Amino acid sequence: MLDLVIIGAGPAGITAAIYAARKKIDFILVSKDLGGQTALSADVENYTGYQFIAGPDLVAKFEEHMRQFAITFHNGEAVTRIVQKPGSGFVVESGKNSYACRSVLIASGRRPRWLGVPGEEKYRNKGVSYCATCDGPLFSKKTVAVIGGGNSALDAALQMIAIAEKVYLVDINPALGGDEVMRRKVETSPKVEVLNNAKTLAITGERFVKAMKIDVSGQARELAVSGIFVEIGSTPNSDIADFVDRNASGEIVVDCLNRTSARGVFAAGDVTTVPEKQIIVAAGEGAKAVLGVSRYLVQEK
Ligand SMILES: Cc1cc2nc3c(=O)[nH]c(=O)nc-3n(C[C@H](O)[C@H](O)[C@H](O)COP(=O)(O)OP(=O)(O)OC[C@H]3O[C@@H](n4cnc5c(N)ncnc54)[C@H](O)[C@@H]3O)c2cc1C
Question: Whose CA is nearest to atom 20 of ligand 1?
Fold first, then answer.
């Protein structure tokens, strides 16, 4: 029986693996991919030690660090569920294997919701972004569109008001939702044009995004934009642990020691209720979680 299975190799899971290796915990790391959402970020400008680094390059640095240790890493393996075995730990199941363990660390992150329109995949990181906090500064004095009508879209629009020349807010609903204070700020900004009943049909460009085609109340329109922020929500990858407490958005509820409602199950990073979904926060949470796991294992033995 393993001491620990870490699920997910984004910043939280990789950092957790490094800490677990240094603590000589008997563990494995199981993940669908290496890098998680960080691999999707064109430019990271807020990870301490790097004024600028491309997301995939930061992931390569993380991997280089992790490979300094003899870590058993099952890359390309998706966990399908975690089964509690009362009195004898857990079994982590994937399509291929099942792993018995004393504790589990869920670091399975989130996935942005996609629009699913032509051009979206082609221009991802070439003008299409899912993170205004991260990529907004790249569009200084440009015209951009934010797609969505809830709090995350309002938040992105407010961030872009300070950076961009003009901001289209493209909302499929008849009226914006979200927080009233934020909504008022967005609606009263001279830089913002709110388009309600607006359905995004396609994203076009050459090497980078140049325009988007929309349907506004039955009228076809083309917006010339350099950047498009898709802010229609993201989903925490928490279904594998349906027995732990989750909030209304599906985030795993953790305390400040990264403990979940199930003893022996810890969680870290974007999959949790911890606010601020950022690389450095996820990495810190991964470290903190393993230190908690280490204490837990000592108490249990
Ligand atoms: C486009 C984009 C740009 C961003 N830019 C920045 C930025 O510039 N600066 C910044 O600080 N933050 C940025 N972020 C946010 C940042 O990437 C996340 O906060 C961070 O990656 C979260 O790390 P994590 O380890 O919690 O989860 P994730 O990065 O989501 O990693 C989760 C890992 O779990 C794996 N996984 C998921 N489900 C399973 C399963 N069932 N079985 C096995 N493995 C599974 C995934 O494959 C992945 O490897 C950006 C996000 C996006 C989407």
Answer: 279
